[in-house]
Specification:
The protein is mainly alpha-helical. The chain is built from 4 helices and no strands. Helix 2 packs across helix 3 and helix 3 crosses helix 4. The chain is globular and about 45 Å long. The chain starts with a helix and ends in a 13-residue tail after the last helix.
Length: 99
């Protein structure tokens, strides 16, 4: 059971970096260096903020609580994703073209 979950997590997480980098590159055509730099900076900043927040939770409670808080944080993320899908394609926003 755990092997399947780990495989699913790995596949899902493995698609994050290329998808986000593609989004940045499409949002700033002709500015590949700046887009790649922004992608790298935000990725590392996200890791740092998440590590800091997780460390505060572990210091204040126990390590398993980090997992529950992470699960609770999925709720607003899921709502935002649903809202994004409901609004349809980007249609020219953020550098995307509606073809």
């Amino acid at each position: 059971m755990y092997k399947r979950q780990l495989l699913l997590w790995g596949l899902g997480y493995g698609m994050v970096s290329p998808a986000v980098q593609t989004w940045y590159l499409r949002a700033a055509p002709g500015e590949a260096e700046a887009a790649t730099s922004l992608n790298t900076m935000m990725f590392n900043l996200s890791i740092a903020v998440g590590s800091f927040g997780g460390g505060l939770v572990v210091d204040a409670s126990a390590a398993p609580d980090v997992l529950w808080i992470g699960a609770l944080l999925l709720v607003p993320v899921a709502l935002l994703v649903r809202r994004g899908w409901a609004s349809g394609p980007a249609g020219g926003r953020m550098g995307f073209r509606a073809d």
